[in-house]
Amino acid sequence: MNKTGKIEVICGCMFSGKTEELIRRIRRAQIAKMSVIVFKPKVDSRYSITQIVSHNKIKIDSQCITSSNDILNYSTEYDVFGIDEAQFFDKNIINICKKLANIGKRVIIAGLDKDYKSEPFGFMPQLMCEADYLVKLRAICVKCGNSASYTKRTTKEIDQVVIGELDKYQALCRNCYNNL
């Protein structure tokens, strides 16, 4: 049987369920007896260094890496590659995902599509263009209850990368985001 590789991208704002959806897809691959491995960037140590953990505490084991190049070290051992918080990886993440898909691997990537200023985040736009399957999830606006596609930072920090949770961010709809 000829394996066809693919790239699946799960994106959206904070609190939209990206990591939860990544974990769901990885667990389904495990049920199908596929060999899986999950990666997370070292910069994201919010809940755990050895697991990816969703905001509602669903978790799965992962490898914590500093460079996307580390992923290729596993290219012959696994069928499915999960990558969480992809916006934090270096530009080479794009080529890594393409190489894996081109050799018949399934690559499932989750990450923020936009930062707190509503600007494209990291290399997620390019990954979205490379996707064979793309899903954009939405959260619930904390102000009005509508579907939210924006992440608002609630602190005064101005760096693009500020690791946080509800203590630093909230999900907002377009209207509430623009009215702040």
Question: What report would you give on this structure?
Answer:
The longest helix is centred in the N-terminal third of the chain and has 14 residues, at 18-31. A six-stranded parallel β-sheet has the order 5-2-6-7-1-8, with helices on both faces. It has helices at residues 18-31, 92-102, 124-130, 174-178; strands at residues 6-12, 36-41, 51-53, 59-61, 63-65, 80-83, 106-112, 133-137, 139-140, 147-148, 150-153, 169-172. A hairpin with a 5-residue loop joins strand 3 and strand 4 (59-61). With 180 residues, the protein is α/β, with parallel strands linked by helices. The chain is globular, with a radius of gyration of 16 Å. The chain starts with 5 loop residues before the first strand and ends with a helix. It has four helices and twelve strands.
Question: Can you tag this structure with a few keywords?
Answer:
180 residues; 6-stranded parallel sheet; 12 strands; 21% helix; 28% strand; globular
How many separate helices? 4
Helix residue percentage: 10-25%
Q: What's the shape?
A: globular
* Class of secondary structure makeup: alpha/beta
E-strand count: 12
Q: Tell me the β content.
A: 25-35%
Strand order of the largest sheet: 5-2-6-7-1-8
Poorly predicted runs: none
Mean of pLDDT: 92
The value of Rg in angstroms is 16 Å
Cα end-to-end separation = 55 Å
Order of helices and strands: EHEEEEEHEHEEEEEH
For the sheet with most strands, the description reads: 6 strands, parallel
